[in-house]
Specification:
Blueprint lengths: L4 E4 L2 E5 L38 E4 L6 H28 L6 E7 L4 H13 L2 E7 L5 H12 L6 E3 L9 H6 L11 H9 L9 H12 L8 E5 L4 H12 L3 E5 L6 H7 L2 E4 L17 E4 L19 H23 L21 H7 L5 H7 L7 E4 L3 E4 L2 H5 L7 E7 L9 H15 L4 E5 L4 H5 L7 E2 L2 E4 L1 H5 L5 H25 L2 H8 L2 E2 L2 E2 L3 H9 L12 H8 L3 E6 L3 E3 L9 E3 L10 E3 L1 E3 L4 H8 L3 H9 L2 E5 L4 E3 L6 H7 L7 E5 L4 E4 L14 H11 L4 E5 L4 H16 L5 E6 L1 H7 L20 H21 L4 E6 L6 H13 L4 E5 L1 H4 L5 H10 L16 H13 L3 E4 L1 H12 L30 E4 L1 E5 L4 E5 L19 E2 L6 E2 L3
Helix pairs in contact: 1-9, 2-9, 5-7, 6-9, 13-29, 16-22, 17-19, 21-22, 24-26, 25-26, 26-27
GO molecular function, one term: methylenetetrahydrofolate dehydrogenase (NADP+) activity
InterPro entries: Aminoacid_DH-like_N_sf, Formate_THF_ligase, Formate_THF_ligase_CS, NAD(P)-bd_dom_sf, P-loop_NTPase, THF_DH/CycHdrlase, THF_DH/CycHdrlase_cat_dom, THF_DH/CycHdrlase_NAD-bd_dom
Organism: Takifugu bimaculatus
Amino acid sequence: MKATAIRNTCSSLRIPAAFPGSRVTGLLRRCPPVAPAVFRAASAAPSGGTKPKFLVNFGKPSSKYAGFECDRSVREVIEKTKETMEALQKRSAAIQPSLAIIQAGEDDSLLEMNTKLARRIGLKVTQVCLEKECSEDEIVKEVLKLNEDPGVHGLYLHLPPASTTSRVLTALKPEKDVEGISDLSTGCLIRGDLSTGYVPPVISAVLELLDNNHVSLEGKTVLVLGGHGTLEVTLRCLIERNGMVAITSHWTSKNLKSEVMEADAIVILEAGNMDLPPNWVKPGAVVFSCDPTHNTDGSDNDASSYSGLGYLTAAYRMKNVVHSCTRWLQERQYQPWNLSSINLQPQTPVPSDIEISRAQTPKPVDQLAKEIGLLPEELEVYGRSKAKVRLSLLDRLQNQPDGKYVLVAGITPTPLGEGKSTVTIGLVQALSAHLKLNSFACLRQPSQGPTFGVKGGAAGGGYAQVIPMEEFNLHLTGDIHAITAANNLVAAAIDARILHESTQSDKALYNRLVPSVNGVRRFSPIQISRLRRLGMDKTDPASLTPQEINAFVRLDLDPSRITWHRVVDTNDRFLRKITVGQASTEKGQSRETGFDIAVASEIMAILALADGLEDMKTRLARMVVGTSRGGQPVTAEDLGVSGALAVLMKDAIKPTLMQTLEGTPVFVHAGPFANIAHGNSSVLADKLALKLVGQDGFVVTEAGFGADIGMEKFFNIKCRASGLQPNVVVLVATVRALKMHGGGPNVSAGTPLPREYIDENLDLVAGGCRSNLRKQIQIARLFGVPVVVAVNVFKTDTQAELDLVCQIAKECGASDAVPCHHWAQGGRGCTELAHAVNAAATRSNNFQFLYNLQLPLVDKIRAIAQQVYGADDIELSPDAKAKIDYYNQQGHGSLPICMAKTHLSLSHMPEKKGAPTGFILPIRDVRASVGAGFIYPLVGTMSTMPGLPTRPCFYDIDLDPVTEEISGLF
């Protein structure tokens, strides 16, 4: 690329154009201003005619009268712009509108004129100087760079006409096009829409002088001479819109003399070498020359003067820049939603989920984003129907009050699941598409394991789905793959470090860990952090003693106490326990380890709890991967890998925007298991959504499994991490699950339902309501949050059964209980629930945590066991007691508790349905997720790697190679 310089008004320092703060400006599309010029005919004495009233152009006026008028107009525009600027800075004191000028060559005359006015107003002007013979690619590169610079509010392309090509103009962002030269700006002006584009400053200057110099506009004739292209068309349209008659002509016109003599005003856009005889101009007419290519008499304007059309044009340019900045600031305020719903036409019988999904065409995701108030720069689009949302949104809307926060939980489920996801989606469809209340669903990303295993997809079901469901269930935007890569990088770092420590001396290790590069040895920042943790306040690698080198290079991991597993997002039971290190190159370093399903990784739990990139980096760094032989915890930061983990996770931390079948917005983010982790979608997705919906809107999020697991962890772990407080709990129940808890037979996935679940049985329903449903309502009430029971209706349910559930739920303390038909009807079938949630959200909320974090770990575990599960007490194994003592010694005693227990019973015994009592809860082990920030006791045996059933879901999944349509995906 040819040499480029950037000039700032405050300094003559020249900086390469790649400097990130550079700005652009170029000349009007068909009219590049060069040196100031006076139209030659202006000072000539008329021959046989009357001298025109005045003549003025870019340079200086032909008379004192003309100079006075320009000077006065410039000062008026400046003063009005200053008032706008002051009002703008009252709204945002730190804002400083900025104009960038891109020009070919290093002529500073234009910069000086614009800088002179900019100082009066308080604007910043920056100049980007390209070579005179710069290429189109070089211009476009600078334009695109400045387009994305949030500190630039106006671009002025001061370039030769041949350089302002269609490609250059297309590259220019319309909102920064303060010269009004882009096709969009021109089209808007011609159409009469002044709300989007900008009036070219030179046209504003001409109209100002026409209005201010004693010319009665109405009915007057204005001749536009010598122009062509968009500037001429725009000027003509605006002249006519101001009540005048506009005619256009060219220097070669045979009727030029008569056209000039009939005109009340003449605007010369381009003159070239042509002269206009003064005696052609009728008495009282005014002449403006917008052509800056004529030479002056060589004298400069007085430094205190603003005479000349060039100054007036520059003043209007500054006005446009301030206007652009005002628009920019306004766009960054909270914007009311303009959500367009997608009509739903439910069919009977209800087709398969994938058929329903495919029959509905989702809105383009950028359209959805605009409807809910997202800015284009806050969106990273993945294809047509999904996009990442940048966390900068939180900074932009930091002063916006949050909406209402709704948690969807459930009773203890059957192995078939009870439909929390469908209720969540049906509820937001009802709120947004039918009640016209802003609402957002926040869901977990499904794992590939269940999708291809036994459960199937997790996009909802029936007419309450996230679409396209294939994209939702398969890969999405790659977050789980990023977690897999990050997790396995830690695993590789562990085994590599053990190998290298076992085969090298301290000196050799030190030389490799802190190598000499070009004769210089430096600690990396992450190594300096390790030195600090070891109590060494040193930065010079040559200053460490042998003892300090030993402490620095030796993690001394105990292979038998490594807690970190590798992960893969596939149900593969044969990876539950493996042996690594059997190759000849790793001889003597074999050890037993295993794989977990990817979503069971601690990194997934961190993703869900982090409130920003910095917080995620901190949590990743403090993850404990094992214990040294000396009994000290070894972290990811000790391994030197935490910075690389943050790099792998930098995109995964952004929530993914999708939509429901009815076009309402959904955030899909994170997917931790609920039996071994906290089982909730991300804090960040909830926070972003709460800002977007507005103060009267709703964010509906879902907790995994029953209220005893997912909801309890939502309150005690997620709400502590986020600082958010829920307004309502929606407790999902089904008649079939209540029958099971009322004494019905066992239910297994893949086998026909027993008759008890198909035929009406009010006794079983009542038994389930007065045991499990009552207990789950009581659990929610422990936290002081109103409860609405949502009965997810199946076609086998009878009206008597549904009425009985609703009646008993209210008797048990629910603020309301309603049947929901979203699966068959979409949002319309969930409007009664939406009304109930809206009403409950207005109730007083006495939210409280179940326990104080400063309680001993044992007491916190006991509180959950007794108050949530209904146990009489807990019983700690010797290993569990030893682990608790160890975590207390390490300073982790104040962390919250994340119980790992079966989801199929309130107790630790899956076969115990209803609301068991009189049992002791056994704690066989206690582990720590220090990075995620919780202690998790293990109740019974928890598998972190599911296995495939005899007939997995993948038997039915296929792809048509011609149409690329997927079939069999749930």
